[in-house]
Amino acid sequence: MKLLRMVGVNSKKYFKDIKNLVMMFFLPIICVMLVNFMMDNSKSGLDTKVAVINNDRGSLGGELISELGVNNIYNDREKAIKDLKNNDFIDLYEIPESFTEDINKNVKPEINAYKIEEGNNTSVFEANIEERINDLLKAEILMENKIISNKAEIDRNVLGIQYNVKQGLMTAGSFFPIMLILFFLVTFSSNISTDLLSLKKAKILERFLSTSNRGYEIMGSIYLSMLLVQTTMYTTSFVIMNVVFKYKFENFGMLILNIILMSAISISLGVMISRIFQDPGVASVVITLLSILLYFVYLGGMMGEGSANVPGILVTLSKLTPFYWAMESIEKSIIFPNVFILILMALVFFSAGSIKYSSFAKKV
User: What does the alpha-carbon distance between residue 195 and residue 159 come to, in Å, rounded to a whole number?
Assistant: First the structure.
């Protein structure tokens, strides 16, 4: 009970801190809105960068192209590939002959991609293709089961359905908001480190030693209160984006679980850095640089998969970052081994900076 009271007191203090509200609630929402605004603007000129070969024997291939807003459309594969080699566009996508037939069978069709160079910046377009195909499948299943009479009714129905799709691709509309907020989570550990060192400098941590509270109770209450506040604020920001701004997030339960785990890593990192570096300014800079490094190593590894232009070591190093395991867990809705690896990372960071509380509180 005493520990819970201490957690409640600390949590109340953190919830009242305007800086925490800005960093953990408002800033993620603002950045996500800006990113999505830029993504929407980039889509307007995307049709000049890509082309589509429509081999579909049915009508849904043409419907997909219309929804994607592509102007470069081919029926001749050889001509399309020749123009691709002449750099008339950067990527070429081929809709198979069985596209409509596959969707009518509730099977997700394969879209072939041809690229002059791996790593071209068309991930937004590819995510858009994935989302549109899923919509076509959903509409076909609902009409087949006489739940709706036409595709225009699909947005007026709140339904849960299953169809044969492959896991493993998160839409761009989900990926970037989630990735940004996980980055903010790790970066915010600089505030945690600054807060701990400020409490130490003001000798508040040292005064706690004169009470009946033990060192592990004091640190435990600070840790748990930070975890509670971070999880609450970031989860609330996701809910606001989902309800108010209509951003769709898949696997919401796994998303919340990984927010909790990334919060634990963030706090453990802050504790480790605060115990290694005694100066708040130095600790803040170190954590910020480390967060940026981990973030770009993950992004580099992700974009480097299957690309000859990115060193293989970067792909390997990306798997040492918490972002890799959290994003894979959310995207594929898997627990093992991702969740356990994230827990292990949190324990490693916390143990690396583990110093007896009394020594940390009194050390100048």
Answer: 46
